[in-house]
Design goal:
Layout (H helix, E strand, L loop, with lengths): L1 H18 L22 E5 L4 E6 L2 E5 L6 E3 L2 E6 L2 E8 L2 E8 L3 E2 L6 E2 L1 E7 L2 E7 L10 E7 L2 E2 L7 E5 L3 E5 L4 E9 L2 E9 L6 H16 L2 E4 L5 E5 L2 E7 L1
Antiparallel strand pairs: 1-2, 1-11, 2-3, 3-4, 5-6, 6-7, 7-10, 8-9, 10-11, 12-13, 12-14, 12-20, 14-15, 15-16, 16-17, 18-19, 19-20
Length: 243
């Protein structure tokens, strides 16, 4: 009897042990979010010496004056909120491109870009900028703080919104306005401004007139350390606006 009881007890222990195990695999941990992808094609350039890299879907293109254009397949080594790293190699040529989401100004034109870029060619390091400058100003309603050297009238509101497809719109201080805008190389151009015809207090009408004249005279923009939009004409800041 004791032997039978011992056998039953041992069997119960074995069944309990098997019940605590599972032949099905454990649920895998979720893959971390790789971060935002770059727009494709993504273009980066640098100066002295000049170079251009274009990251297209499936290939990386390297352009340098006096040298053949190189087209290589690449791998994305790192991709996160703090930047991207691409690598490509072929026939003795090794390329690594590193981007970081930090404001970068072209050393020749002064045009601001949304990303700083480092390019390594066979170990040699080159610095440059990347991304479309439009990304810095699109999709934001910029609220004007100063026009020329004068602040806006208390409780008045002048705004600028750069819209897709080259459209611009906003409040001039009294009336709504629309127009067109473009970035051509190193130049910002605002043109064909038209506004509604509501009458306001003379001071507001004067401010609106100065604002629209300065906006249409614009030929450059920058982003300040405070993340303000600074619009210039003839090398002088004429409008400053905040997000």
């Amino acid at each position: 009897m004791k032997g039978t009881q011992l056998l039953v007890f041992a069997g119960a222990v074995l069944l309990a042990g098997l019940a605590g195990c599972s032949s099905s695999p454990e649920k895998p941990e979720p893959v971390p979010d790789p971060g935002p992808a770059l727009e494709k094609p993504f273009t980066a350039t640098g100066n002295e010496p000049f170079w251009r890299v274009i990251v297209e879907p499936g290939q990386l293109v390297l352009e340098r004056p006096g040298k053949p254009t190189e087209e290589l397949r690449y791998e994305t080594v790192a991709q996160s909120d703090t930047g991207h790293r691409f690598r490509a190699a072929r026939d003795g040529l090794s390329i690594e491109l590193v981007t970081a989401p930090q404001l970068c100004r072209d050393t020749m034109t002064g045009m601001p870009h949304p990303r700083q870029v480092r390019l390594f060619i066979n170990g040699d390091r080159f610095a440059g900028c990347g991304g479309d400058p439009e990304q810095l100003i699109l999709g934001v309603e910029w609220v004007v703080a100063t026009i020329g050297d004068r602040g806006v009238i208390d409780k008045s509101r002048a705004t600028i919104e750069f819209l897709p497809e080259g459209r611009i719109a906003g409040n001039g201080s009294c009336n709504q306005y629309t127009g067109t805008w473009s970035l051509n190389g190193e130049t910002l151009e605002v043109s064909r401004l038209a506004s509604t015809r509501k009458a306001c207090e003379p001071a507001l009408m004067d401010q609106e007139d100065r604002f629209l004249r300065q906006l249409e005279a614009a030929n450059a923009f920058d982003i300040s350390r405070e993340a303000d939009l600074v619009i210039s004409a003839g090398g002088e800041p004429v409008i400053r606006a905040a997000r």
